[in-house]
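User: I'm preparing a small set of examples for a lab meeting where we compare how different chains pack in three dimensions. I only have the primary sequence for this one, and I'd like the structure in token form so I can line it up with the others. Please keep the answer compact; I'll paste it straight into my notes.
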Amino acid sequence: MTSLSLRWFGLMAAGTLIAVAAATPGAAAPRAVTTATATATATATATATATAASGEHAPLASPLTPMRLVSPAVLPAQPWLPGHRGIDLAAAPGDNVTSPGPGIVTFAGVVVDRSVVTITHNDGLRSSLEPVTATVALGDAVSAGSPVGVVADSPSHCAPDTCVHWGVRDGDTYLDPLDLLAGFGPVILLEVE
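Assistant: Understood. Below is the structure token output for the 193-residue chain.
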């Protein structure tokens, strides 16, 4: 698998892997996890509502240093269509993973067969990282660059290589994390006169 090394203007990389798993309607979850998740999410939502009035999002930082892109986002035109809802970053088991921005840990656990950490940022965006074994707990406040876990030694969709999948959502809409990196994107073409 080919990887692309990206560097940006003196930015110290920090972050979280984003992988989003939709809940199955009617599926039962352990009551303690459901209650804790609801409390952490409510706290994060209240903070996000108070700080996101302008609709602008604070820049994020890579959850891995150095940041080496393995696979870019391929966001579908419609939510039900196939695509790659995030980016894959080259990693090795045991690598440190950091929060891409300030926020609250709203999920730290296993989804199907992968360890996932989700952070709801102060502006309401949610970053999910997988496979990441959490070193933080549900409801913990984190700052940009704070350690949140380590790359798990488990299968990933980059097999046989290891990668961290970082997904970002604004509500139910998936965003390309590269467009949110400080000093990186999005690219905007201006009219030339």
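A couple of notes for your slides: The longest helix spans residues 31-51. Residues 1-54 have pLDDT under 50 and may be disordered.

User: Perfect, thanks.
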